[in-house]
Amino acid sequence: MRALTPEQHQVLGAIARCRTASLGGHVEVCLECGQERPIYNSCRNRHCPKCQALAQARWVEARSERLLPVPYFHVVFTLPAELRAIAKLNRQLVFNALFQAASETLLELALDPKRLGARLGVTAVLHTWTRELDFHPHLHCIVTGGGFDAETARWVAGNPRYLLPVRVLGVLFREKLLDSLSRLERANKLRLPELPGRRDPQGFDRLMGQLHRKAWVVYAKRPFGVPEAVFRYLGRYTHRVGLSNRRLVSLDERGVTFRTKNGKALTLEPVAFLSRFVEHVLPSGFVKIRHYGLLAPKHVSTLLACARAVLTAGTQRTASAAPTPTAAAIDENAADDYQERVLALTGVDLRVCTACGACSLQRRPLLEARGPPSGVAA
What b-and-e string marks burial along 154-165, b requiring 16 or more CB atoms within 10 Å of the CB? Predict the structure, then answer.
């Protein structure tokens, strides 16, 4: 296993300390049955499998306020396998180029008068893994089924069966991404992998030529049936990490076993497992969820608001005329208590005793517990 980067080292350290005594915490004591349970603080690292549920629920709650009563499509842009080695050496540059190429492809093609002639709304989320934890960068994009024409102040509805022709999307995406990478290489900003024992100055140009001749596939799913389901669906992607706790099967002398797909499982020797896991640690400060078009921050209070007003005026007597608060929505000012927020956002009541079901838990400092909490050796 190669040496860890500072970001990877920090992530592994945070996960190792997460919900352990080293981060501090408190003891929950049930006044009804007497059960004592230690509750340790979380690391809150965005790569931690245990620390994303509340952040995800908050994100979905906030995004639901920007929903439009229109169909939404799910489009996936994948970095070709031939570029993965370059991406590993230039994560920030290549990931930024991937975001830029995918977003510009969608927005420019939709703005073409021969296509839609309007501005789409796009939310894009970066994933870098497969179910086997292999390095596989790709973008999940949720795209409005139609766009807003600012010149005529009207909503232009798209084809209900498909968003844009996927073959044209693939060609434009290919040209934009390869052009971006070529410009980076000409500016000597890219680190390039070397062939064993020798350098290959023409290798990059040959690779670009091969990729220009290759057909790139952009995957597009059918539109969502209910607008309110869009960001709940996307929420499954926004704060997901390479491996969730639910997929872990066992840890023994053979290694780490985790579920992949189709009922299968994979066992990796511990160092190999950690090596795959840290491949998906993002550069420090890197933004993996980005919004474009109508959903870009600069357009939320202008173009998006105008689009919503137009759509609402046209459907003012329908239930979906305007986004309604989700079941998880609550008053921010009245939600100072962490337990209340967890209940409102996830449906989990942290005030209920897991042993007797009574709502009589009291929080005490760790040192004030009358004895070792249940299940914890003295």
Answer: ebbebeeeebbe
Residue 331: both structure tokens together: 């008053």
Element at 338 (helix H, strand E): helix 338-346
Separation between Cα atoms, residue 310 and residue 330, nearest integer Å: 27
Q: How confident is the chain (378 residues) per 10-residue block, as mean pLDDT?
A: 80 87 87 85 82 68 79 94 95 98 97 94 93 94 93 90 90 97 95 67 87 92 72 68 85 90 92 92 92 95 93 57 37 50 66 82 71 40
Q: What angle do CA 362, 368, 371 make, to 5 degrees?
A: 95
Q: How many CA atoms lie within 13 A of 349 on its CB side?
A: 9
Q: CA 126 to CA 143: how far, in whole Å? A: 15
Which ranges constitute the DSSP H helices of 248-327? 270-278, 303-314
Residue type (1 letter), 187: A
SS (H, E, C) 88-155: HHCHHHHHHHHHHHHHHHHHHHHHCCCCCCCECEEEEEEEEECCCCCEEEEEEEEEECEEEECCCCEE
Cα separation, 167 vs 219, in Å, equals: 10
Report the alpha-carbon distance of residue 361 to residue 354 in Å, rounded.
10
3-state secondary structure of 308: helix
- Which amino acid, 287? V
| Placement of tokens 């007003």 in the chain | 309
Total residues belonging to the chain = 378
Pairwise CA distance, residues 144 & 261, whole Å: 30
Secondary structure tally for the chain: helices H, strands E: 10, 13
